[in-house]
Amino acid sequence: MSTMSTTPVEDAMRMKIVKALNPTTLEIYNDSSMHSHHKAMQGSLSKETHFRLVITSEAFKSKMQPARHRMVYALLKEELDRAGGIHALQLRTRTPEEEETQLAREKAEQGQSIVEVQTA
């Protein structure tokens, strides 16, 4: 879970996602400052418009990515629909098994790179 300072929209998202999806991983990144200069954001006073979420949950089991994303959109409907609310939401949704597979793949790739460097 993210331990960085939070904001009202981030707090609301965290509460809804934890309650509904009981995630084993929940990372929330507020990328709003990187997009504040965009034309669509001119005049917006909100500092909470662009988020990236990484969610690992058993609730995603046997669901394809579009269905998982719809689950999250439904949970955050209020934040997405509110004037000055969330403008962009990037999602990475996985089951615990998919996360384990990805972590194993990353470890294997790191190990392979180390071997290549040592033998070169």
TrEMBL record:
Disordered as annotated region, ranges: 94-120
UniProt feature, compositional bias: Polar residues: 110-120
Family per record: Belongs to the BolA/IbaG family.
Name used for this protein in its record: Bola-like protein
